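Changelog-linked ticket: nicotinamide-adenine-dinucleotide example.
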Amino acid sequence: MSAAIPKEQWAQVVIKTGGPIEYKKIPVQQPGPDEVLINIKYSGVCHTDLHAVNGDWPLPTKLPLVGGHEGAGVVVAVGDNVYDIKVGDYGGVKWINGSCLSCDFCQQSDEPLCANALLSGYTVDGTFQQYCIAKAAHMARIPKECDLEAIAPVLCAGITVYKGLKESGARPGQSVAIVGAGGGLGSLACQYAKAMGLDIIAIDAGDEKREMTKQLGAQHFVDFSTSKNVVSDVKAATVDGLGPHAVILVAVNEKPFQQAAEYVRPRGTVVAIGLPAGAYLRAPVFESVIKMITIKGSYVGNRKDSAEAIEFFRRGLIKAPYKTCGLSELQNVYKMMQEGKIAGRYVVDTSK
Ligand code: NAD
Ligand code: ZN
C-alpha cells in the first residue's frame, strides 16, 4: 500500500505556548481508515502559525504542537476507507484538516463553521513536518501539473482571500481596498482581485511592498506608515472619490479594523479576515446606517472554494512572490514576520 515510509522525521515542534520552537526528530504517524499520509515537500508560513506559537487567540492549541497549514506534497499512504485518492497523488493540507460532514453547517458546505472541525497546525499536528495526516474528505486535490512549492501559499492564503473576495460581493469593474496587501494573504488577494477584474487599492507600508503590490496588479498604494489621513487617501484613490466597493482586511493590527467603515463606499462591504490579538472592529453607527454598509467576517473556505482557488492557480492566473528556506530556519521566518519584514510569503522546504 505504501512506499518506504521512515519511522522518524524532522519537525518543528511548539513545546509550550510562547515558544521557542524546537527542530527535532519525531515519529511518523500512520493514517486512520478515513485519512491519508502526505509527504509534505513544501509548506507556506502563515501569520496564523505565529499567532498559534504566541497564544494570541482565545482558543488553546494542542501541545506539543507541530504548526503549519499550507502543506503541499505527495500522498504516501491511504486508509482502508479511502477510495478516491491513491499513493503518488499530489495532496494539500489546509487549515480545515477535517470536519464532521454531518452537522447543520457541514451539510450546507459551511465546513469551517463545524464545531468539531480539526484545525491543521492548531488542534491537530500540521505541515511543519515531513509526513502529515489529513482527513481524506478534506485533503486538497492538487493537479499533477502544479508546482508544489508555488502552490503551497494557495492552500491557506489563496483559499482565504478568494473566499473573502467572493463574500465581499465585489463585481468586475468595481474597486477593492486590500488592507495588509504586502503580506502573505494580501499578496495573494492582489492576484485574485486582479483575476476577478477589480480595481485594487493596496494598503501597507514601505517601498518594497508598494513595488510588489504594483507588480501584482494594484493600481494604487496607500502607505499607512506615512499617510497623514488614510481614510481620505483611500477615498481619493477611487475614480469618483466615494470609496471602494469592498474592503478586504488582512492586516495584523487593530487600527485598520477601526477605520475601514469610514472609507468604504455607501452600500459597500467590509470583510474582516485578519485576526490581530484581542482586537475589536469599530464603526460609527450614524455613517454605517446612512451609508447602508455591510461588515462581515470571512473564515478560510469550504472544499469547493478550495478547489476553485487551486483551479485559478492551475490556470496560471495566480503568481504571487515567495521566498524559500529550510524548515530548520522557521524560527527566523517568525522573527521577520513579527517585525512585518516579509513582503509576500515564506515557504519552507521540509528536506532542509
Ligand atoms: P503577514 O504578516 O504576512 O501580513 C500582514 C500584513 O499586514 C503585513 O504586510 C503588514 O505590514 C500589514 N499591516 C500591519 N499593520 C497594518 C496597517 N495598520 N494597515 C495596513 N496593513 C498593515 O500575515 P498573513 O499571513 O497575511 O496573515 C494576515 C492575518 O490573517 C493574520 O492575522 C492571520 O492569522 C489571518 N488569517 C485569517 C484567516 C481567516 O480565515 N480569516 C486565514 C488565514 C490567516
Ligand atoms: Zn493560514
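Closing comment: Example verified and attached. The domain at 8-156+301-349 is CATH 3.90.180.10 (Quinone Oxidoreductase; Chain A, domain 1). The chain has eleven helices and 18 strands.
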